[in-house]
Amino acid sequence: MQPDVGKIYEGKVTGITKFGAFVEIEPGVTGMVHISEVANTFVNEIKDHLTEGQQVKVKVLSISEEGKISLSIKKALPAPPKKEFRGPREGGGRPNGNTGKPRQDKAVPKEPQTPESAFEDMLNKFKASSDERIGDIRKNMDNKRRNTSRRRGG
């Protein structure tokens, strides 16, 4: 039997190595799952994620001219939810999570925005953030200029 590329199969882990795991998807048909295709997170030790004899779902990525079958466990799983981008001043800008904004315990319901007003709000936030960053850069440059003039005069 020749498996179909792109198809998902239920298989059994038959062997584990440092670089991947071998999975039998049909009797006599075995493919390899590379360590990078085991999970959606970084995998340091495959044995932390898989054991021999374990049943797993795998997706056939490719079949080489020699007949080697490349498999993926993570591509057979549903896609992980995408994280929403949070700008540097929207909750994730500082290491301790402090945004510098006063805390608001009670959520204030917002009125529905038109696409134009939503865009204007986003643009105003970007402008304020840019102005703040430019001010920080200017302060740093002024400090550097002052420090170099002191070194020369001494």
Short description:
The chain has one helix and five strands.
What would you note in describing this structure?
This protein is α+β, with helices and mostly antiparallel strands. The chain contains one helix and five strands, in the order E-E-E-E-E-H. The protein has one helix at 115-153, and strands at residues 8-16, 20-26, 29-34, 55-63, 69-72. A five-stranded mixed barrel has the order 1-2-3-5-4.
What is the strand arrangement across the widest sheet?
1-2-3-5-4
Low-pLDDT sequence parts: none
Rounded to an integer in angstroms, the radius of gyration calculated over CA atoms is: 27 Å
- Strand elements, count: 5
How far the N terminus sits from the C terminus, by CA atoms, comes to 83 Å
User: Which structural class should the secondary elements be placed in?
Assistant: alpha+beta
Mean pLDDT: 81
Strand content: 15-25%
Question: Given the C-alpha coordinates, what overall shape results?
Answer: elongated
Order of helices and strands: EEEEEH
**Approximately how much helix is present in the residues?**
25-40%
Largest sheet: 5 strands, mixed, barrel
Discrete helix count: 1
List its salient traits.
alpha+beta, 25% helix, 5-stranded mixed barrel, elongated, 23% strand, 1 helix, 154 residues
List the helices and strands and how they pair.
Elements: E1 8-16, E2 20-26, E3 29-34, E4 55-63, E5 69-72, H1 115-153
Parallel strand pairs: 3-5
Antiparallel strand pairs: 1-2, 1-4, 2-3, 4-5
